[in-house]
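Slide 14.
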Amino acid sequence: MVQINTHLTANDSADKIKKLAADKVSVEEKIKKLDEIIVKKRAEISTKKYESNIQKDKDKNELNSLITERTSETSLYNSIVNQIQSLASGSNTTKVTPKYRVRGFWAIPEPKKVADTVDQSVVQFIIQYRYLSTSGKASEVSQLPFTEGTRQKTAVFSNWNEMTTKARDRYRDDVSGKFAWQASLVEDAQEVNFNQLDMNSIIGANSLPMQTILNDSRLHTILLNLSKFDVMTLNFKALYYFAQEQQYYLLNKINFKNNEVKKSSVLKF
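Slide 15: predicted structure.
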């Protein structure tokens, strides 16, 4: 699996956003810890019987220091969020979705030698594939009745798909004047070889159109645990896999109020 549009997604803004997102998580965790310490310190001050005002003032000063530190970390957190928003709105990082394709090559078998004939070379490959779920389970095969002559039969429709690669190129030898099969130029970036596979072409040629998929979809209302940054970077054109539901969903509407995600609607496929 390779990403084919890294020239669009790999940029300075994207790298900065990733670093700021990591800093944001770190500061967020620190604020949570400070809140826990502050709650404990306040409870201690309100319940503890002090022998002198000096001891009480000492604990109050510690509490004030914790509150000041928390205020400082909150300002830093808000600053990081603002930087992420600024970078995201001032660049195309949120508009460009990574695109992936399954690509690969395989070795070409040696020509078969047959007596009194030229060597028989492989000139094309037949590719078979099928779709699996994320757990590796294939869809059930369909059984279709049909009539052959006077007999009624039941045929099993395979869930395997088949396609062929491009035919191997030929060239004319200037010395002998005969045609020969071109060797595979796998190291040439300008050459489309007959022993290569691009899964995007398979999906594009054999998958159902989006309209057909949408006709078989269901609109669900669910609760999503999303941060403000998550909401900013959501892609409404991408499929998301929800592990709890073990299903793929397409985002339809996200209700985000007071820095909190409310009930949202998604399309189940």
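Speaker note: The first strand starts at residue 2 and ends at 3.
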